[in-house]
Structure formats: C-alpha cells, structure tokens
Amino acid sequence: MKKLFISIFTLCSLNEPIKVFADSNELAISHAPISIMGDHYHNKGEWMFSARYVGMSMADNLIGSRKVTEAEIIENPNPYQSGMMSTKLSIVPEKMEMDMAMLGLMHAPSDSITLMSMAMFEQKEMQSLTFKGVMPNMGGMSMPTMGGMDMPSKRTALGSFKTESSDLRSLSISALIKLFEREQFRAHVQLGIEKNFNSNDETGDILTPMNTRVEMVLPYAMQIGDGSTSLLSAFTFVNNKQNDWVFGFQGRARTNLQKDAWAFGNSRTLNAWVQKSVAQKTSVSAGISYSDISGITGRDLRINGPVQAANPSNYGGTTTSFSLGLNQLVKIFPGSHDDRIGLEISKPINQNLNGPQMGTNWQFQIGYQKSFGY
Ligand SMILES: [Cu+2]
Q1: What 3-state class would DSSP assign to 78?
Q2: CB distance 184 to 240 below 8 Å
Q3: What CA–CA distance (Å, rounded) separates 308 from 91?
C-alpha cells in the first residue's frame, strides 16, 4: 500500500505544471467531474456529443434525518382516507432503482456563447410492502376485523410488489455565456429552458391493503415527466491556480415556470470539486454537492393510495453528498480530439427529507464525450 502511494506521489510530482485551459481538449482535467452539467464551454466552431448513464439506488425511509421503520410508518394516518379505505398508511416503499440516460449536444457559434441541448430518458423501479389496512371507526362503533382489515395493534404484512415506469423525461436547450477567461480562472453562466414531457399518468398493479390487485395511477415518485416547463440557470467558476490542480464551483437552479396539475419542486444545487492531474490523460476528483429541493406543488386526485409517496408534502428536502471521480482520455474513434470517459460515484453524507420519504443510498455515473471541429 505504501509503495502504491509513493509511486502515485512520484507520478504526480514528475508531471510538468500543466496549462489547463489552453488546448483544452488534450487534458483530462479540463472538463469537470462527469456529474457536473454545463461545466465547460467550447471554442468557436466546435461541436461535442455526450452520452451519460446514471444509476441511482434508494433505500431506507427517513423523516428529516432520522431513519424510520415500517412499523412506525404504518402508524401514520392516511390523509386521503374515505369510505372503507384504511385509516392508516398501509403500503411502505422498500427500495427503488432509477436509471437515467442523457444524450447531449454542444456547439459554439462564437467564442463567447456555447449552445447545449440535452435529452433525458428515465426508468424507475420500486418495491413496496403492503400491510393489512386499518378499519375506519364507523359512527363511533368499533368494528371487529372483517374484509381483510386488521386492528391497529396487529398489522399483518401481505406481501411485496414491484411497479415500474420508463419514458423520455425532458428536453432542454441552454446557452452557456462566457463571463471571463484568464490563464488561471474562467467563469460562465448558463441560461436555458427545460421541457418535461407529460408522462405523468403511468399506472401499475398495486397490492392493496384488502389483499387485492388493482391498477392505479402510480405515486408522484414513480412518474417520469410532470409536463412542466422550467428555467435552468447556473454559474460556474473554475480555478487552476495550483498548476495541475483544479478547483471548481457551480451553483445551479431549476425553477418552474409553468406546470400541469402538479410539478416536482424547484431545485437549487451547490457543487464544489477539486481535481488533480495524475497524467496528461488522467485526472482524479473529489467533490461535495448540496441540493435543496422543494416539495411537490399541486396534486393529482387519482393519486390517493395509503402510501407516503401519494402525499405531495412527503417530497423534497436537502441532501449533501460526497463524490469521487475519474476523467480519462482514450482513443476509440478517429478524430482530432480524444474520446473522454468520466466515472463518478457519490454517496449522501447527510439527508434531511420531508418525510416519511425514501432516501438515496448511492449514485453511479459514467459518461462519454467527443468533441469535433477546430
Ligand atoms: Cu462540451
């Protein structure tokens, strides 16, 4: 292990100080870690194609930062109770997997403006556990167990079920506008529009607290596009003062301009990262990300199951994550520029969620970028 550190250290210190922004396509470090969107702009006439895959695993339900058990969750009242529906929450999300694929195109019509467009596809899969419902107290008369209902004291688990959804989520177009560029600093802003598609009535087969299977509109968390239109804005600052080190900062916001019956909340994210060249074609990175997402606004009356995710107020919160990444230049396809591969893995170190809500366990991202032109 010690030998490994010494050889890495030697490799690092042998490196000539690298001029980071000149001839930017030849250095791994000249692009930020792969999870940072719109981190760079291009020189006039350049094009860039990118493809990214993000895998996200969610598990454990939280109220604020506190982990809560299934037994505790099903003690919460069912806010949409009516008729013979269970008076308490009866379906508990156990785990969720999300896969996202993003295709991007960048083009710089001038040295000061780069246009960027992106298409995002999403696939979600959730596993939930259903408990027997709790009978409403009809007219003050406590009813004995009947019709598959349990008394509050003993809630029998009926079984797990899976739901899934997938679709094109959104298209966006942005302008990246250069503010200044010096030898050791650069900064730019992003302004754009994101259009979410109307894939907001995905349905699935639900195991009900009455132990029946019913096809229902899935909770908001399982919907892909909310049909909203949002303003994208970001400010990015990058500093390479320390030779082959790069420090970067990005503040980013997504603000809803127009929505359908409901919309996912606005988000604000702060990213800070440090990168180190370990060779001209290889850089490693560490980053920290803080995101603050608002709850869902509006409501779909068809989403009314006895599950936390049917309640728009059980959405949003803050998450702080730590990430480690690698940028690598390789020669795969012909062209004047190398192919870029980026890898990043991130894990929340603090989550404070409006809950009960399922938290993030980890996230993995791999990306490919290829520039063309001058
Ligand atoms: Cu680019």
Answers
A1: coil
A2: yes
A3: 8
Distance 211 CA to ligand 1 centre (A): 52
Residue 48 CA to ligand 1 centre (angstroms) = 5
Q: Copy the structure tokens of residue 284.
A: 């490693």
Name the residue among 245, 281, 269 with its Cα closest to residue 346: 269
Structure tokens belonging to residue 352? 């404070």
| Cα gap 274→261, rounded to integer Å | 41
pLDDT digits over 318-369, tens only? Answer: 999 999 999 999 998 888 888 999 999 999 999 999 989 999 999 999 999 9
DSSP structure class, residue 73: H
Give the span between the Cα atoms of 184 and 357, in whole angstroms. 43
Distance 41 CA to ligand 1 centre (A): 6
- Domains of the chain: residue spans and CATH: 2-88+98-123+165-372 (2.40.160.40)
> 220: Cβ–Cβ under 8 A, 6 or more apart, which residues?
226, 262, 264, 296, 300, 303, 309, 310, 312, 315
Tokens standing for residue 221: 């968390």
Backbone angles phi, psi at 310, to 5 degrees: -85, -10
Q: How far is the CA of 322 from the centre of ligand 1 (A)?
A: 24
Cα separation of 143 and 135, whole Å? 7
| Nearby residues for ligand 1 (ion, Cβ within 5 Å) | 48, 106
Could you tell me which residue, 280 or 50, shows the higher pLDDT?
A: 50
If you measure from the C-alpha of residue 176 to the centroid of ligand 1, how many angstroms do you get, rounded to a whole number? 10
Query: How many Å lie between the centroid of ligand 1 and the Cα of residue 119?
Result: 15
Picking from 299, 295, 296, the residue whose alpha carbon sits closest to that of residue 80 is 299
Give 35 Cα–ligand 1 centroid separation in angstroms.
13
Q: What is each CA distance from 79 to 71, 157, 201, 309, 312, in whole angstroms?
A: 18, 21, 21, 11, 11
Ligand 1 centroid–CA 40 distance in Å is 6
